Amino acid sequence: MNTKTVEKIVRPGTPHFVGDGFRVHNFIPGTSSMERMDPFIMMDYNSPYVFPPSEIPKGVDVHPHKGFETVTIAYKGKVEHADSSGGGGVIGEGDVQWMTAGNGVLHKEFHETEWSKTGGEFQMVQLWVNLPAKYKSTPAKYQALKNADIPKVSIANGKGEICVIAGDFQGQKGAASTFSPINMYNVTLQKDAEIELSFPKNYTTNLITIKGSIKINDENDVPTDHFVLFRNDGENFTLKALTDTKILVLSGEPIGEPIAAHGPFVMNTREELIQAFKDFQDGKFGQLE
């Protein structure tokens, strides 16, 4: 028996706002601890939500990060990013922003200016990926991954597609560079299409149904906007589309190091957290207007 079975299916809880531009349901660590979800230590899901037109873009103003990476995956709407390392850009449908905070960075993210003026449906996933201790002091960097540049693999006899954001699928390498082994796919399936995915038994594996509904292993029905965590009891599982679907699939090797997290900093010890706050207060994360 090599099946990776479902540990839990989580419905979206009461949403809250991050800044005034992201209306999110928290799945990590809200439903499972950072240690259980390692290396995925935070996940906010902005389910489809209509923002009215605004001349002043909504979002989150300047704030610091250190010790991990932030990943924003766009499904609807547009987000503009800028950080103190010089990274920045706009992402729209199918694009991904991957920021390595590393040794410390200031950043801000808002609805893109022109999109904000018209408003519309907005849907995003925001994810924090932990960094191994040896990389927590790596220089900050930014990867702007455009949909057109993210490799796509046809599946299910042409009735589906896997967009390989990170890791690899059937030998196709993902667009993002990572500091630990991570697979991150956007999986699109037409109704009744079915695929089998396989990840190492020890990898932390989970998914979100971004659109439509699915059946896992011919057993578990998962409605739209729900989060699924798999047990570490096997390698293979099947996904069958009950409607036309899009699914975000994540699977990563646990880093297995102590996690000391507070606010915008994720380190390994309390002493390192104190130092991170001091570095921020001393202006070592650079400047950002």
Report on this model:
This protein has helices spanning 34-37, 113-118, 270-281, and strands at residues 6-10, 16-18, 22-28, 40-51, 59-65, 68-76, 79-83, 88-91, 96-100, 105-111, 120-130, 141-145, 152-155, 160-166, 168-169, 172-173, 182-189, 194-198, 204-211, 214-216, 220-222, 227-230, 236-241, 245-252, 260-262, 265-267. The N and C termini lie far apart (56 Å). A hairpin with a 2-residue loop joins strand 15 and strand 16 (172-173). It is mainly beta and 289 residues long. Helices cover 8% and strands 51% of the residues. The strands form six sheets. It has a seven-stranded antiparallel beta sheet with strand order 1-22-19-24-17-14-13, with no helix packed on it.
Main-sheet strand order equals: 1-22-19-24-17-14-13
Anisotropy-based shape: globular
Work out the strand percent.
Answer: over 45%
Uncertain segments are none
User: What's the mean pLDDT score?
Assistant: 97
Alpha plus pi helix count = 3
Could you give a short account of the major beta sheet? 7 strands, antiparallel
Helix content: under 10%
- Written as H for each helix and E for each strand, in order along the chain, the element string is EEEHEEEEEEEHEEEEEEEEEEEEEEEEH
Give the N-to-C terminal Cα separation.
56 Å
Question: What is the gyration radius calculated from CA atoms?
Answer: 18 Å
* Coarse structural class: mainly beta
DSSP strand count: 26
